[in-house]
Design a protein that fits this description.
84 residues, alpha+beta, three-stranded mixed beta sheet
Amino acid sequence: MVDTLGLLAEAIQLARELGFDVREEPLGDTASGEVRIGSGRHILLNVSDPPSDQLKQLTEILAADKRWKSVPVSKLLKHTLQGR
């Protein structure tokens, strides 16, 4: 069984290491996603969504940013990112 909360925490840490400002906020019906403000890169995670949905949306953003390959990550997170 996958440790969704642990994997989500690791993915958030990875995003921060890559220079994203990660904010966890109640966004109502709005989905989590990446926002660019000027040169800043932000990820808004909707805390109203289940952790599995937050993880899915976050890993889709991170998988599109190939810089993650230069940062040490767990085997599980690596497998998850490669599958996106």
